[in-house]
Specification:
Blueprint lengths: L5 E6 L2 E4 L7 E6 L10 E12 L2 E7 L2 E9 L2 E5 L4 E4 L4 E5 L4 E7 L5 E11 L10 E5 L4 E4 L1 E3 L3 E10 L2 E2 L8 E8 L3 E6 L5 E9 L2 E2 L2 E2 L5 E5 L4 E6 L3 E8 L7 E3 L2 E3 L2 H12 L34
Antiparallel strand pairs: 1-22, 2-3, 3-4, 4-11, 5-10, 6-9, 6-11, 7-8, 7-10, 9-12, 13-15, 14-18, 15-16, 15-17, 17-24, 18-23, 19-22, 19-24, 20-21, 20-23, 25-26
Protein name: Pirin family protein
GO molecular function: metal ion binding
Organism: Microbacterium pseudoresistens
């Protein structure tokens, strides 16, 4: 396993207009130009806080898991393996694309509603990319208390993988951590980390200094690897999301909604989605509505490699 050492790199989000029937802006922080993955985490959007009528029509995925973590509001998820569920705060939707799956995401009701959520993608290792699509919802995730060095203890909800000896029930294919951390005002807490993993901390709400560096809301501090803990200090209280895992060392080509190893795999998946191939199935409760694939850029898609 390659080790790169501790880092303290602030990653800033960029606005991405989704447009069309979704008519939403999101703040995207992964992938970044210099850092395509953190562990197997390869994508991070925050949509909201906003008041919107979200209508993300059926669209395909390959080679990844989608991790949806709502902060405010409800999201209706439907997919090609027959799932039709409503997701609420404190619950996890985890969809594994494998060789191919499609799904839709709607806000609940016909009017605009308050909505705020984090959506991540996790790259699947090559042996899992040929598997069948799957979906799981977890409504009761494990939580633990983190003793404070000053002030009240923090609480952590383990969303995916393992943190501080506590394991999420959600299916993971690589050594990984995804955990929501809540700190009360005037608190100083040391978060335990695995020294052989890389980590990052996303500031969701409040104020936080992580490893002695201020992390504004919406930004994420990349910590690198080779740390066994990191100190977090807040004055007003903070909501954070810790993500990380063993470095993902396979080549990864990402384009649109696909994660693969080569340009040709991406091109074939696009053609099959446009042709309505059985590979992606049909999203339950939908008719012919779907999001068409954009044209592939006139270049050979290549893997992205870290430069930090």
């Amino acid at each position: 396993m390659s080790m790169h050492g501790p880092r303290s790199i602030l990653l800033e989000p960029r606005q991405v207009p989704l447009g069309g029937v979704r008519d939403m802006d999101v703040r995207r922080i992964l992938p970044s130009r210099d850092l395509p993955t953190i562990g197997a985490w390869c994508f991070l959007d925050r949509f909201g806080p906003d008041e919107v009528r979200m209508r993300v029509e059926p669209h395909p995925h390959i080679g990844l898991q989608t991790v949806t973590w709502p902060l405010v509001g409800e999201i209706r998820h439907r997919d090609a393996v027959g799932s039709d569920v409503v997701l609420r705060r404190g619950q996890l939707n985890l969809m594994t694309a494998g060789h191919g799956i499609s799904h839709s995401e709607y806000s609940v009701g016909d009017d605009a509603v308050p909505l705020d959520a984090l959506q991540f993608w996790v790259a699947l290792p090559e042996e899992a990319c040929a598997g069948h699509g799957a979906f799981e919802q977890h409504t009761d995730l494990p939580a633990l208390s983190l003793p404070a060095e000053d002030g009240p203890a923090a609480t952590a909800t383990v969303v995916l993988g393992e943190f501080a000896g506590t394991h999420s029930p959600a299916t993971a294919y690589t050594p990984i951590v995804g955990a929501e951390i809540r700190l009360d005002p005037d608190s100083r807490v040391s978060l335990p980390l695995r020294i052989d993993w890389e980590h990052a901390v996303l500031a969701v709400e409040g104020d936080a200094h992580v490893a002695a560096k201020e992390v504004p809301v919406g930004s994420m501090l990349y910590l690198g690897d080779s740390r066994d803990r990191v100190e977090v200090i807040t004055e007003e209280g903070a909501l954070l999301f810790l993500l990380g895992g063993a470095p993902f060392e396979e080549d990864l080509v990402m384009w649109w909604n696909f994660a693969a190893r080569t340009h040709d795999e991406i091109a074939v998946a696009r053609e099959e989605w446009e042709a309505g191939a059985e590979r992606f199935g049909h999203v339950v409760g939908h008719g012919a509505e779907r999001i068409p694939a954009p044209p592939i850029p006139p270049v050979h898609l290549r893997p992205r490699h870290r430069r930090v």
